């Protein structure tokens, strides 16, 4: 009898995928519903991977996106260092016109704002008493003069003594002095300007009864307007007489006035450490006493400096920077060193040359080596990525 040998047939190896893993874990075959669940899990994983990759691409795109900015070309021009301070204007020639006798106002000849000259009649007071007193003094002096002339004739003839002649001469002198007093009292009834200037205030009305030493008018000479400035003592070496001063008034913000240093105080105020500097004007224009002004004393001037506009500045703490445009449309951040500056410009450091272009708008978000785009540059082309559906991600592109 022939012996037969049994050969074991090994089963085919089945793929060990996610479906097989789920079947192995559960311990029984997947039905149609569990197959659908398996499909949803696979799709969720594919979608999450796709969104993660897309998010990375978007962040990378944003980090390299050019920032729109505006630039200007650096040029040369004059710049000054101004020692700035503020003060109110005042008139050095300002007087109060007061009465020197008591009487009633019978004539008023000027009003506030009128220009007057020294000695001009401003008002008249009632003068009856003074006029009468002057007439009496003149009559008494005339009588005494006649008596003196008679006594003098007798004295020459040696008919009277020396004592009688001296007494007659003394009486005449006294009466002549009385006439001078009466004339002066009569002149006090006429109120006249003590300086040339403008009537800034009228304090009386027609018919007022005024007293002795009462203020009647105020006269200001506008040509004597000055400002008394106070500057730190460390600037003393920078000050000199006739130094130019730039002045702007709060009432006229768009107009600049020119003044000069008139006086420099020889002492430093111990309490404040300040020096008083008096400035004056050759032409005051519309300036008036009492106006508040900002004054800048020109202490240093450079006629041909490389200038940076202040609107180009960027700040990092207490440091100032500007961004210079490079040929590859990136920017270079440059730190500025202290130099001359005025309200609109500052002196350029050595790194920035005439003709360089610096950013004047959009510099807030810039960093060193940031890519930028100018207004005339073409719009950047955006990469249009195809959004793949979950069928395309699963089965491939068609």
> Which structural class do the helices and strands define?
alpha+beta
CATH H level, superfamily name of the largest domain: RNA polymerase II/Efflux pump adaptor protein, barrel-sandwich hybrid domain
Query: Averaged pLDDT, please?
Result: 84
Low-pLDDT parts are 1-11, 58-62, 383-398
Task: Write up this protein.
There is one protein chain. A 6-stranded antiparallel β-barrel has the order 3-12-15-14-13-16. Strands 4-11-9-6 form a 4-stranded antiparallel beta sheet, with no helix packed on it. It has a 4-stranded antiparallel beta sheet with strand order 8-7-5-10, with no helix packed on it. It has helices at 18-26, 32-63, 128-156, 162-187, 390-395, and strands at residues 67-68, 70-73, 75-91, 94-98, 103-108, 115-116, 121-125, 190-192, 197-202, 209-210, 215-220, 225-232, 244-249, 252-264, 274-281, 292-309, 314-316, 319-325, 331-335, 345-347, 357-361, 372-373. It is elongated. With 398 residues, it is α+β, with helices and mostly antiparallel strands.
Report a brief summary of the structure.
By secondary structure, the protein is of the alpha+beta class. Helix content is 26%, strand content 34%.
């Amino acid at each position: 009898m022939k012996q037969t040998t049994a050969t074991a047939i090994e089963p085919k190896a089945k793929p060990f995928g996610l479906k097989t893993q789920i079947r192995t874990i559960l311990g029984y075959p997947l039905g149609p519903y569990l197959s659908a669940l398996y499909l949803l899990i696979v799709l969720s994983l594919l979608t999450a991977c796709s969104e993660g990759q897309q998010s990375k691409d978007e962040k990378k795109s944003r980090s390299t996106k050019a920032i729109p900015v505006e630039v200007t070309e650096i040029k040369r021009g004059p710049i000054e260092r101004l020692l700035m301070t503020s003060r109110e204007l005042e008139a050095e020639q300002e007087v109060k016109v007061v009465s020197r006798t008591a009487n009633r106002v019978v004539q008023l000849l000027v009003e506030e704002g009128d220009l007057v000259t020294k000695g001009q009649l401003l008002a008249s007071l009632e003068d009856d008493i003074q006029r009468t007193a002057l007439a009496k003094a003149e009559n008494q002096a005339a009588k005494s003069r006649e008596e003196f002339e008679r006594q003098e004739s007798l004295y020459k003839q040696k008919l009277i003594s020396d004592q009688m002649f001296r007494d007659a001469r003394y009486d005449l002198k006294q009466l002549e002095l009385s006439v001078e007093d009466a004339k002066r009292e009569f002149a006090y009834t006429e109120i006249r300007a003590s300086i040339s200037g403008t009537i800034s205030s009228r304090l009386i009305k027609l018919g007022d009864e005024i007293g002795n030493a009462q203020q009647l008018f105020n006269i200001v000479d506008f040509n004597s307007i000055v400002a008394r400035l106070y500057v730190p003592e460390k600037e003393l070496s920078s000050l000199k007489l006739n130094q130019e001063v730039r002045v702007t008034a709060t009432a006229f913000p768009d107009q600049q006035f020119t003044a000069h240093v008139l006086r420099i105080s020889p002492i430093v105020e111990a309490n404040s450490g300040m020096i008083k500097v008096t400035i004056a004007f050759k032409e005051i224009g519309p300036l008036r006493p009492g106006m508040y002004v900002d004054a800048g004393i020109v202490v240093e001037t450079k006629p041909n400096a490389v200038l940076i506009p202040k609107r180009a500045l960027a700040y990092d703490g207490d440091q100032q920077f500007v961004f210079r445009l490079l040929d590859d449309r990136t920017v270079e951040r440059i730190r500025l060193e202290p130099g001359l500056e005025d309200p609109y410009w500052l002196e350029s450091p050595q790194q920035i040359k005439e003709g360089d272009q610096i950013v004047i708008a959009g510099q807030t978000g810039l960093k060193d080596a940031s890519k930028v785009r100018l207004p005339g540059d073409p719009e950047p082309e955006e990469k249009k990525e195809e959004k793949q559906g979950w069928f395309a991600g699963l089965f491939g592109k068609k």
